[in-house]
Design brief:
alpha/beta, Nucleotidyltransferase, domain 5, globular, five-stranded mixed sheet, about 325 residues
Length: about 325
């Protein structure tokens, strides 16, 4: 049995799992609060302790860990094994030597990857993109990230930065994005963007049950609420998903004409809307893409759920030697 650990350093939680790469299954998993406000030293202590406990539990069941893969949000310098900076993390994480710190404490090979590239790789290895030559993955939640597989290889680009699909420009005159650009796909399709659009329609006095669903507290509107309203037949909620799906369709159309994926995998909390999102995406693609058989591009929901990143990082760590 080939066993590796996949770990995700997230803004809310740190998750890790002991993974059997031969079967693509998570044998054991752990999740703890990140508590990023306590600073880098405390976060790293908790993370190292959690990984050490998984290593020891693996040994107790005759599963020796061969290496560790760690994902994090934001840009990483894969050559140096450093965090360039962490999105939405307070404190001094700039140019933090993550790989060196972990290797010193754990004495095991360490591999790093952006969190959404990890999800992409997990879906490619074990999920909805398995055995494909070309696929794209959009992870849609608080933000929008992505990843690309071409010729059965994860595209890294400059130090792992390729695949920031949420930051392609959809509207050059659009709102400013957190990345500093204007009119990014993320501005129109992320969970907060969906909630903001719904809130705007409620404030305009448009008839919808969304306000009642949150007891008229517009701060409680989420993409999940908007999805529930749409499934209940609310016309405005359905219109919102049509708008969001159309924008995603524009982004996916750009990817289709650029490299012709066989399949586009949607992951993240917003993707749980399923057909509410997929149907307008397909309609948008049919309207916009005429230089390739876009009807043959499959649009699917990721099959690995919350385990995608852990499985992806464990597999990335497992294939590290082959990449050298």
């Amino acid at each position: 049995m080939t066993v590796y650990i996949g770990c995700d350093l997230g803004g809310t939680n740190i998750k890790a799992g002991l993974v059997d790469l031969e079967k693509g299954t998570v044998l054991l998993s752990r999740s703890i609060p990140t508590l990023a406000h306590e600073g880098q030293t405390k976060v790293m202590e908790r993370m190292i302790n959690m990984i050490q406990s998984l290593v020891q539990e693996g040994k107790s069941t005759s599963h020796d860990v061969q290496g560790i893969g760690v994902s994090a949000p934001g840009p990483l310098d894969l050559d140096k094994g450093e965090i360039v900076f962490l999105t939405n993390f307070p404190g001094q994480w700039k140019n933090y030597p993550l790989a060196k710190t972990l290797k010193s404490a754990l004495n095991l090979p360490i591999s790093l990857l952006n969190d959404v590239r990890a999800i992409t790789y997990g879906e490619f290895c074990f999920g909805s993109g398995k055995n494909l030559d070309r696929m794209a993955c959009f992870a849609i939640g608080t933000g929008v990230g992505g990843g690309l597989i071409i010729n059965k290889k994860l595209v890294l680009g400059f130090s792992g930065t390729a695949g920031e699909l949420g930051h392609m420009t959809i509207n050059p005159n659009g709102p400013r994005c957190g990345c500093g650009n204007y009119g990014c796909l993320e501005c129109y399709t992320s969970g907060p963007a969906i909630a903001s659009l719904a809130s705007k329609m409620v404030r305009q006095g448009i008839a919808t049950q969304i306000a009642e669903m949150v007891d008229f507290d517009l701060n409680k509107i989420t993409a999940k609420i908007v999805a529930k309203a749409a499934l209940d037949g609310d016309e405005i909620a359905c219109e919102i998903w049509d708008i969001v799906g159309n924008y995603l369709g524009i982004g996916i159309a750009n990817i289709c004409v650029a490299f012709g994926p066989q399949r586009v995998v949607l992951s993240g909390g917003v993707a749980t809307a399923g057909d509410l999102l997929i149907n307008p995406i397909k309609k948008s693609l049919q309207e916009r893409v005429h230089v390739m058989p876009v009807d043959q591009v499959e649009i699917v929901i990721g099959s690995l759920g919350n385990d995608a990143g852990i499985l992806g990082m464990a597999s990335w760590a497992g294939s590290a030697q082959a990449r050298k």
